[in-house]
Design brief:
Elements lengths: L1 H14 L6 E8 L2 E7 L8 E6 L5 E9 L2 E7 H5 L6 E6 L8 E2 L1 E2 L13 E5 L5 E5 L2 H8 L4 H10 L11 H9 L12 H7 L7 H12 L27 E7 L8 H10 L3 E7 L5 H5 L7 E4 L5 H13 L1
Parallel strand pairs: 1-8, 11-12, 12-13
Antiparallel strand pairs: 1-2, 2-5, 3-4, 3-6, 4-5, 6-7, 6-10, 9-10
Helix pairs in contact: 3-5, 3-7, 4-5
């Protein structure tokens, strides 16, 4: 009887399904991860298989012995070949499919889903470990850079017939708005970013949050010089601010016309005026400007107005 019971116990133990390999440690980032997997060592030294869920594409990563089982290193280079495909993790002893076993989840992977990372490690509903490409709308929503009011204004000014009722504006931008060149915020010019980075196939804002930001890529054109903010210099309160005006004159008869006197008189209300004529001019004519200028001269140099400006700069300093 004892012999029979012993035989049955051994048989049951032999037929009991082996405990699946289990992820018990995760360190690093989504694209540079160190995985620790618990699995019996008497099965032999396994390989970690990254398997594309829809295509079956495989990438093999070696495993080294660890105090808790086996440890492997998965980098962005390993994951890049799968592009947007979901990746499942397996342990295998050799090339035979019969030895493959799905890696079960034994740690909480949510804390490693850092904002801006292009991929997310997660536990499936079956309790296994997988990696997926983060959806563009997910990346944008987590970044906090989407300005809903600005985008709604963009939609209203476009030829798009509004956003369908109940549809999230971010989802609309990913599905349609970006292709129409609409901007998700004043700080991001969709058309400009796509023109400057024509190889980007992913949503432009999601690509920027994942990659372009770290590369220092520009998100909008530089403002024109006339719109750039100045150095912020301010004169003390109550100080009379005066400006300098360099006035280049010319008259073939050597005359200062009345309209020139009137023009300089108005300029003198706002600036210190310095006058230089390219040519001969009698002193009485120059004297007509004395009341309205800080200095008035005539000098034949034949270099037109630019020559007069240059000489005035030398005189005024």
């Amino acid at each position: 009887m004892r012999r029979t019971l012993s035989h049955l116990v051994k048989k049951a133990a032999h037929e009991r399904p082996a405990r699946p390999p289990t992820l018990v440690g995760f360190d690093g980032t989504a694209t540079d991860a160190w995985l620790t997997i618990s699995s019996p060592r008497d099965d032999g030294a396994p390989l970690l298989l990254l398997v594309g869920r829809s295509t079956g594409v495989e990438v093999r990563a070696p495993l080294a012995e660890d105090s808790r089982g086996w440890q492997g290193h998965v980098t962005d280079e390993d994951l890049a070949v799968f592009e947007g495909e979901t990746i499942d993790l397996h342990l295998a002893l050799d090339d035979g499919a019969a030895t493959r076993r799905r890696v079960a989840g034994g740690v909480d992977l949510a804390p490693f889903a850092a904002e801006g990372q292009p991929r997310r490690w997660y536990i499936t509903v079956e309790g296994n470990v997988s990696v997926r490409r983060r959806r563009a709308a997910e990346v944008i929503a987590e970044s906090g850079t989407f300005d809903v009011d600005h985008y709604l204004g963009e939609v209203a000014r476009s030829s798009i017939a509004g956003i369908p009722e109940g549809m999230d504006p971010i989802e609309h931008y990913v599905a349609k708005g970006a292709a129409e060149g609409l901007d998700p915020s004043p700080m991001f010019d969709t058309t400009y970013y796509q023109r400057m980075n024509p190889t980007v196939r992913r949503n432009p804002l999601a690509h920027y949050r994942e990659t372009g930001r770290r590369q220092g890529l520009s998100t909008r054109p530089e403002p024109s010089p006339s719109r750039r903010v100045g150095i912020g210099h301010r004169f003390p309160e109550g100080r009379d601010v005066r400006r300098v005006c360099l006035f280049a004159g010319y008259d073939p008869q050597g005359v200062v016309d009345d309209y020139v006197v009137a023009y300089i008189r108005e300029l003198a209300r706002h600036a210190d005026v310095y006058y230089l004529a390219d040519g001969e001019m009698p002193d009485p004519e120059l004297a007509r400007l004395a009341e309205h200028t800080e200095g008035a001269w005539a000098e034949p140099h034949g270099e037109y107005d630019f020559g007069s400006y240059s000489r005035l700069i030398d005189r005024v300093g």
